[in-house]
Design brief:
Blueprint: E1 2-4, E2 7-9, H1 16-44, E3 46-61, E4 64-72, E5 77-82, H2 89-95, E6 113-119, E7 132-134, E8 136-140, H3 147-159, H4 162-188, H5 195-217
Parallel strand pairs: 5-7
Antiparallel strand pairs: 1-2, 3-4, 3-6, 4-5, 6-8
Helix pairs in contact: 1-3, 1-4, 1-5
């Protein structure tokens, strides 16, 4: 048997304070892992396509860009709304279609060869003029494939889904609950009176802050 601060703790058992700290640090990795698995699932469902732009429309809303393309030989409407992320690489590739080789603005974007990805389940709908199809990583046919840009565009799509905000809110509530519980144990059992505990507490808070800022950046 041993005593940590003023807390009596049976030998061989992990203290509640330690469990709450472990949960505080494990939750961000669990959340990011689940998000990574979803992005990997989307990646396995995407098929690359090519075509020429017949028409293009960009509607700007509050915090969003809504792009609509008509790309031959398909007859479907290619539709995608971006929630204006901080690092808008995917939107940059689309906006680049309106720029000439010398950087000048191009009023007519039609006729350009583009490469893009669609869900395999949407292939059967490409010849339906009434269908609206999500597209991914649309770029000029002259632009080389960039793996990082591709996965970032898929990630932006995932974080723009309604379910993601519910999942993130649930995660945030759990993270706050773990922090509050750890803080209670830290103060209640006078663990802040021990130098080692103060160091562990500070390092865990710093690590948790870095992980949560990284998650927050995914939504900006």
């Amino acid at each position: 048997m041993f005593i940590t601060g003023t807390m009596y703790q049976p030998s061989g058992q992990i203290s509640r304070f330690t469990l709450f700290l472990i949960s505080l640090l494990a939750l961000p990795f669990l959340f990011l892992g689940m998000l990574g698995l979803y992005v990997s699932h989307l990646d396995s469902s995407l098929i690359e396509q090519s075509g020429r732009v017949r028409s293009f429309r960009d509607l700007m809303g509050r915090g969003t860009h809504h792009y609509t393309f008509s790309i031959s030989p398909s007859r479907a409407v290619f539709d995608r709304a971006y929630h204006t992320p901080m690092f808008s690489t995917a939107q940059h590739n689309i906006n680049a279609l309106s720029r000439g080789p010398d950087g000048s603005y191009r009023t007519d974007t039609t006729g350009q060869l583009v490469d893009y990805y669609v869900f395999a389940s949407d292939l059967s709908r490409l010849n339906d003029p009434r269908a609206k199809v999500d597209f991914f990583y649309l770029r000029s046919g002259q632009q080389r494939y960039d793996r990082n840009e591709y996965y970032y565009d898929v990630l932006v799509y995932a974080t723009g889904q309604t379910w993601f905000y519910f999942a993130w809110t649930t995660y945030l509530l759990m993270e706050v609950s773990c922090f509050a519980s750890a803080w209670y144990c830290y103060k209640m059992y006078a663990l802040d009176q021990q130098k080692n505990n103060r160091l562990i507490w500070s390092l865990c808070l710093l690590a948790a802050a870095v992980l949560n800022v990284a998650i927050l950046l995914l939504m900006l």
